[in-house]
Amino acid sequence: MKLSALAAVVLLAATGAVQAQEKVVVYNWSEYIPEGVLDEFTRETGIKVEYSTYENNEVMYSKLKLQKGKGYDIVVPSTYLVSLMREEGLLHEIDHGKLGNIGNLSADLMDKSYDPGNRYSIPYLWGSTGIGINAKEIDPATITGWADLWDPKWQGKLLLTDDVREVFHMALKKNGFSTNTTDPEEIRAAYEDLRELMPNVLVFNADAPREPFLAGVVNLGMIWSGEVIMAQEENPDIMYIYPSEGAGFWVDSFAIPAGAENVDNAHRFIDYMMRPDVAAKAVEELGYSTPNRTAKELLSDEIRNNPVIFPSAESIRAGEFQQDLGDAMEMYNGYWEKLKTGS
Amino acid sequence: MKAFKRGFVILVFAYLYLPILLLVINSFNVSKYGHEWRGFSLKWYEKLAGNEALMQAFTNSLLIATLAATAATVIGTLMALAIYRYRFPLRRTASGLLFVVMLSPDIVLAITFLVIFIALGIQLGFWSLLIAHITFCLPFVVVTVFAQLNGFDRNLLEAAQDLGASESRIFLLIILPLILPAVIAGWLLSFTLSLDDVIISSFVTGPGFEILPIRVFSMVKVGVSPEVNVLATLLLAISLVLVTLSTLLLRRKKPQ
User: Which of A63, A88, A103, B233 measures 20 to 30 Å from A301, CA to CA?
Assistant: First the structure.
């Protein structure tokens, strides 16, 4: 009797100690997981979340690269970075058998060329780069595709995002090429096209394209879907158009760095984030789209039927996801410098 | 002419303080992005109070800035003094090397720090961050203090020595009071540098220790929230109180 009581105490203490140590280290953008979700995860699983933040993909990448994939258990790279990190052996393979909720994800956003079979990444949120327009100033019906931005009447009026891949995406798509082309001729053709577009450009914006729209400085230009949702809270006239040639799509995915110390907890975390109610909360709070089919059914009609968040199947088909381009990136960067310096 | 002078001063002040004033006003604005006034509200203050992660990052930042500035000021002042008063081998090289740190781009320093910390097996977090911050603040303190020392009358020191004062007495009673303004300036400069550093910090800090600038910059994905305006307003209020207090204290000390 006494002995078993002692054993019970020891057992309790042991599990207690284990629980106190259980943690998962998440490296992500700030506030990119809805409020309360992390606390709820800890309450349910006893796993403590250490949440660390980065301001762009490149900082995360170089830090992991220098630390040989150690230090963090979860990172949230964008599409092109998944393919790069996977090829460089920076990511740990994900055991789908440990992810009970994976069946909730829509096949439309799985098994893409940046990570065939999703062996290294599980999509979290996704969105697109399309055309933003202030419907009060410009009739949205007159703009249907990227090509419309080339109209000379927009001289000195457009906003472009300050991102070489996104800007080239427009011109490549306009010419019917892939956004991931490495063919020098195609890239050159896109560059020539973009040179013609430059007189129309008023401003390049790197991190908050909604701001110039809200301030009324621009009424037409490139914008990210999530930014439109944020802008609409303030000004409902700001609308989003999926260009007929195809919007640029991106996905931010959960991945486990190769040197992660808490691999099991990382799997539990990813699985938790795929729970329909949690995924639905992410859409409600962040305004980006979820690949989670089941979660979509939990959302209000207003959100579910908002084409900015959930584009039509047709728009998704027309669009394209970015991949890492390897050495061809140098060519893009060279042209990009020329474009921006106006030579 | 007088009107022009006054106008010019007003213009300079407006240029400096209007943006800050706008920020303070926006911290009370109902509207999220502050493009127009939508009414008075304290909701961002309430949200900030409930945002533990942001508050934690804020206090961490203040802690690191205070410690780094203090350590850099102590080490830097002694260093400046050493370069000024004593001859030792590599004296010129030492002061030259400080400029190298000062002029190096942040990103170079950041990668260097990270590589060293990894090589030495130092765990990234509070200590690595503190060491890095002390390092990049140090040259600024040395330069400020050294400039003050250069305009210093050496005869004072010799007179003190003639009268039999020990090195420590000379330092405490003569040098320190005379260079105090530069020391304080060096501290404040370091504090500011440490408080708003992003690039170096994001490389050398670990998951357990988050600081404010990184947290704020990482918000680009979801839009910087007005809670940041509130934080800035609070910071402004704190510094205003400190400045007022120190002015009052200094005024009282001076004989009428």
Answer: A103
